[in-house]
Design a protein that fits this description.
By secondary structure, the protein is α/β, with parallel strands linked by helices. It has 6 helices and 9 strands; from the N terminus they run ααβαβαββαβββαββ. Helix 1 packs parallel to helix 4. The structure holds S-adenosylmethionine.
């Protein structure tokens, strides 16, 4: 079943930075990813951000110019156009599904994916393509939502996303969660070696903390 994340983010795009950057529901994945990125890059690094959105996870890297190139990929036309306004030196590609990653040439030292994995219909394609996109010994940094027994929201493998604001409501927009053991198996079968796996609070939904995993791994 196709996830209509594209429709949701097209609606949210104009307000995305405002709603995520401050206040009680502040969005933390970009900052955590960014600090891992700085441990791995140099002025020669070619970086690709899958689900780049408005570019929050590459903002500091862009400002410090510690890269050779940054490519951003997203399913939402509107998120891409906001990203383009903010960062004119980034190569941006609109895709219709993860399979479109197959059209991108493999030449990257680092793949990042911040707060986007939960919207993928097919995790296997994502890992396969990350492996293909990376140069020898390249790195992948991403976040995912785990299934958490007894958690009010994260106990379910799939949830239809209900927006608190009816203006942003989209049918067919869902979040997918995984057991950490499933992610570890997928990483190993797609030839990635896990260097770091940490839990963190990504944001607050109503009164619940939403927990993510941050994974840093290396292509074998
Ligand atoms: C929560 S936002 C995260 C944006 C940015 N990475 C950040 O951390 O602020 C999720 C982004 O993933 C994009 N997205 C959702 N499904 C996608 C897919 N299948 N392929 C590429 N991008 C996708 C959305 O359009 C949106 O821009």
């Amino acid at each position: 079943m196709k996830n209509r994340a594209d429709k949701f983010y097209d609606k949210l795009a104009e307000s995305y930075d405002l709603l995520t950057k401050s206040g009680p529901n502040v969005w933390t994945p970009p900052k955590l990813i960014e600090s891992e990125v700085f441990n791995l890059i140099s002025k020669n690094s070619k970086i690709i951000d899958i689900g780049i959105g408005t570019g929050q996870a590459i903002e500091k890297v862009y400002q410090t110019r510690t890269f050779s190139s940054i490519t951003g990929v997203d399913i939402s036309k509107k998120m891409i156009s906001i990203c383009k306004e903010k960062f004119d030196g980034i190569d941006l590609i609109k895709i219709d599904s993860l399979s479109d990653l197959k059209k991108i040439k493999n030449a990257y030292d680092l793949v990042i994916c911040s707060g986007t994995f939960e919207f993928f219909e097919n995790a296997e394609i994502f890992f396969e393509q990350c492996h293909r996109l990376l140069n020898k010994s390249g790195y992948l940094i991403f976040t995912y939502e785990p299934i958490i027994l007894f958690h009010l929201i994260q106990k379910d493998e799939i949830s239809n996303n209900i927006s608190g604001n009816s203006e942003f409501q989209v049918d067919g927009f869902f979040t997918k969660r995984y057991k950490p053991s499933t992610i570890n198996k997928l990483l190993s079968s797609n030839k990635f070696n896990v260097l770091k796996d940490e839990e963190f609070i990504s944001y607050k939904k109503n009164d619940s903390n939403i927990i993510y995993h941050l994974i840093v791994c290396k292509k074998i």
